[in-house]
Design a protein that fits this description.
Helix content: 40-55%
Number of strands: 4
Order of helices and strands: HHHHEHHHEHEHEHH
Distance between the termini: 88 Å
Radius of gyration: 24 Å
Strand order of the largest sheet: 1-2-3-4
Shape: globular
Length: about 290
């Protein structure tokens, strides 16, 4: 009896393995991730109305038109064949003038950068623009068959597509954001990873090349490592040095710091028990102590 039970269990196990292999290898060759975000249309149009009412009041954007142009760019195209140029009409419907000296760029510092922008209230990230606000954290892809609409079951990963529908939109949005930069700009990079400045990232591969040295006065680099480390890159080592060389070659003036007090405080607020937060707290108390 024991032998028969073990044999049955083994057979089921092998059948599951076989099923997994079939599913893994008998797909269309794309690494499928999550499908299009449910209720995409309602989310995008709702965010648009929220933006023009609360974030950028009195603006004259036509939210319904923006959605129609977006839908036209994505629908009835292969999931891996939505090019940057396909969003041209949508971006024409979303022009935006940005204030000089307030643009904030980032790479591999997503959570911290938005906390920094919210606390300082001096900066705008790409996600604070109309297009960034509408499409932030959303996924979408269409289906090539006519009148099939969006694919809510699965969309390919970015790495599997040259012309991924999500990547193409963010590439154009990033290029527009950087091309509009003027005055002083700030870049926040992660000092706890190798290649913090990566030429394949959106900042290194798109935004940096779109910055105009005749319009940008200074590029202020801020390097921030995790409180517990590792401390891999800084203003004087690693890929940050490569970034500085690129800026110098292109004629940009720059500054760099890897000990920004505001960023350290934000990190300590999120993790106050960290040992490295004690000097930060002492420094803050010293600044606030009244002079007698």
């Amino acid at each position: 009896m024991t032998f028969q039970k073990s044999s049955s269990t083994s057979s089921i196990f092998h059948m599951l393995i076989l099923w997994f292999i079939i599913v893994l290898f008998c797909t269309d060759g794309l690494t499928a991730g999550m499908g299009t975000t449910p209720n995409l249309k309602h989310i995008v149009i709702g965010r648009c109305y929220s933006y023009i009412t609360l974030v950028w009041p009195n603006s004259s954007y036509d939210c319904e038109e923006i959605w129609r142009e977006f839908e036209e760019a994505v629908m009835r195209k292969s999931r891996c064949n939505v090019k940057v140029k396909d969003y041209k009409r949508m971006f024409h419907a979303t022009p935006q003038t940005l204030t000089c000296g307030k643009l904030l760029f980032w790479s591999k510092t997503r959570e911290l950068i938005h906390s920094y922008a919210a606390v300082t209230r001096r900066f705008w990230t790409l996600e604070d623009t109309l297009v960034g606000y509408m499409f932030n954290d959303l996924i979408w892809c269409g289906q090539e068959e006519k009148d099939r609409g969006f694919d809510f079951n699965s969309c390919p990963d970015w790495s599997t597509c040259v012309h991924h529908p999500v990547y193409s939109l963010w590439r154009q949005a990033s290029q527009n954001f950087a091309a509009a930069a003027c005055g002083n700009i700030t870049v926040l990079l992660n000092g706890s990873i190798e290649n913090a400045f990566n030429r394949k990232s959106m900042f290194g591969g798109v935004e940096l090349d779109s910055l105009n040295p005749r319009m940008v006065d200074h590029v202020n680099i801020k390097v921030v490592a995790n409180l517990e480390g590792p401390f891999i890159e800084s203003c004087t080592q690693g890929s940050i040095v490569d970034l500085i060389n690129v800026l110098q070659t292109r004629g940009f003036r720059w500054t760099c710091t890897d000990s920004d007090l505001t960023l350290m405080i934000l990190q300590c607020i999120q993790n106050p028990q960290q040992f490295s937060c004690l000097p930060c707290a002492n420094s803050l108390l010293h600044r606030q102590r009244p002079h007698l």
